[in-house]
Structures are given as C-alpha cells and as structure tokens.
Design a protein that fits this description.
Archease, Possible Chaperone, Chain: A, domain 1, alpha+beta, four-stranded antiparallel sheet, 147 residues, 7 strands, globular
Length: 147
C-alpha cells in the first residue's frame, strides 16, 4: 500500500452526528481529509456501540488494514471490520493513530475499550447505504448502519 498523508495536527475539525430511526442508525460524518473522515467514522461507531454501556479502558492496540476499490467501498469495509471486532471480541474502537488512507486502502493503529456487557446492536454497514461527498472545506459521509 502506498503511503498517503497521515492525519495532520491541524485536522481538529472532524465531527459526527447520529440519528436513530428504529432499526437503523444514520451517521453523518464531516472531516477535512479522507484519513480524518475514516478516523471520525470509526469513533462515531465506537460511541454508538458504547451508548449506555460501561467500558474498561485498554491499552490494547490492533493494526487494521482494509483494501477496496473506491471511497464508499473502502468506508463500508472499514466500518464492517470495526463492527466485526466489536461484536465478536467486545473490542470497541476509540482512538485511531498512524492512519494512512488512499481511495483504495486504509491502515491504522486502533486503540480500544472493552465494554463490561455486550456492546450495542449495530451489525453492518451496507455499501448501497454509504455515501461520501466532497463539500466546501473537506468531506462528508452519510452512513446507514443496521441495528
């Protein structure tokens, strides 16, 4: 995988908003760069999984790498990788470091927390329900997750 710019120190503006609609969760994620958008989407999923669930801090770090053709496919695969580990191992992502990303690949060191009870019921991100758009000042993604 070729190296792309990492999250820069001035990329402090990423933010997200979550809206619940019955069995689905809409996530709106905004960031100034593609790596920052992937990290913020991961943090948003972690927050949603931990809503109302006590967590135990962990120093455990895992290196994750995903490859896919195009931003929507890559974001979908990235989130599904995080959701898989959350459900299978109770490994909830909270911090992303050394995140490198292109439109076709992403790699990061991810720190987690462990919930003291099963995490929230988010299960998958579907490709047809993930959109990434260029907006003034950066990128915006809409992600619909199944609960």
């Amino acid at each position: 995988m070729s190296r792309a710019p990492a999250i820069a120190a001035d990329d402090r503006r990423p933010w997200h908003e979550a809206l619940e609609h019955g069995a689905v969760r809409d996530l709106w994620v905004h960031a100034t760069t593609w790596p920052a958008l992937l990290a913020e989407a991961g943090r948003a999923v972690g927050e949603e999984l931990l809503t109302g669930v006590p967590a135990i801090p962990s120093q455990r770090i895992r290196e994750l790498e995903v490859v896919a053709a195009g931003r929507e496919r890559l974001l979908t695969r990235w989130l599904n990788e995080l959701l898989y580990h959350a459900q299978a191992e109770w490994w909830i992502p909270v911090d992303f470091a050394e995140l490198y990303a292109t439109d076709g690949a992403a790699r990061a060191r991810v720190r987690c927390v462990r919930p003291s009870e099963p995490p929230g019921a988010l299960t998958t991100a579907a490709l047809e329900r993930v959109e990434v758009h260029d907006v003034p000042g950066g990128l915006e993604a809409r992600i619909v997750l199944q609960a």
